[in-house]
Amino acid sequence: MNYATIGTGWIVDRFLSALQQVEGNKCIAMYTREEGRARALAKKYNVDNIYTNLEAMLSNSQIDVIYIASPNNLHYEQAYQALQFEKHVICEKPFTSTLREAESLINYAIDKGLMLFEAITTIHLPNFKLVKKNLDRIGRIKLVQCNYSQYSSRYELLLNGETPNVFNPEFSGGALADINVYNLHFVTRLFGRPKAVNYIANKHANGIDTSGVVVMEYPEMIAECMGSKDTHGLSFILIQGEKGYIHVENGPNGCSKVYMHTREGEVRLDAQDNENILFYEVVEFNKILQTKNINRCYELLNHSRSVMQILEEARKDADITFKADKNPIGKRD
């Protein structure tokens, strides 16, 4: 299948590296606002066409799939436009800025019979699937702790009076949307939607969250999801059951090392052999696209919708407002 990308950041580089490892796929076009920013990336992956006009790229009939890795606030508009041009869409996390946007995209993709995916590494990783497979072995689960902390160099810009996109409410930024979203995907994919969601956040003067803790309450379990872009910390996950616990080192993004502890001792769970964690989601999306397994696509979309519901509940609980909250939603055909 022929791909095109929107964005030129490091994540696009990693996506294209993963894409070239999956036979039968090729990136043939890139969209960027400034052509110079895409030249080196295009040369690295032998991409022939660089566009500075999005509609011109979407009009290219040779393109099958659009991969979107632009600022969060642009995800909805660009994904909607790609669907209008009959393209399948893979959109980076967070899927959209708001639940309304997510539901609008999902409904539109279903109406058009097109594939739409959220590019979230966690739930497609072999080690994550091993965690899910082995949950029963640690007994009834009572507590889950998730911590994804990664000090951001852009936080220093924020402290110095600048407003980088990732800390800008107009760009739908913040620690919850940028980093804690991985924790929410991890917990929700394993345990479903909670019955209650609360978010306690450290907020900058502009109203954006720089770190915080989401508490997800289930009938017999509590999950605590911590995400921080303003501190250094130890990223990890602990799933604690009555018969043992599962420890995921380095947090939910890569699930790089997983250990299960029971009365019988410690067992290492590991089925990942590719250093590029995006490889596994690319393999999954490619399989769905090639086999036209629309039901599998829609099941993944239902999961993304659930996470967006939790994200929005948490954000509203902490009184964090995005510009996108006030944007009108509706079809543009």
UniProtKB/TrEMBL annotation:
Q: Which SUPFAM superfamilies match?
A: Glyceraldehyde-3-phosphate dehydrogenase-like, C-terminal domain, NAD(P)-binding Rossmann-fold domains
> GFO/IDH/MocA-like oxidoreductase domain location, by residue?
137-246
Report which superkingdom the organism of origin falls in.
Answer: Bacteria
Query: Which InterPro entries does this UniProt record tie to the protein?
Result: Gfo/Idh/MocA-like_OxRdtase_N (IPR000683), GFO_IDH_MocA-like_dom (IPR055170), NAD(P)-bd_dom_sf (IPR036291)
In what residue span(s) does the Gfo/Idh/MocA-like oxidoreductase N-terminal domain sit? 1-117
Q: Which GO terms describe its molecular function?
A: nucleotide binding
Supply the PANTHER family for this chain: PTHR43054, SCYLLO-INOSITOL 2-DEHYDROGENASE (NADP(+)) IOLU
Protein name per UniProt: Gfo/Idh/MocA family oxidoreductase
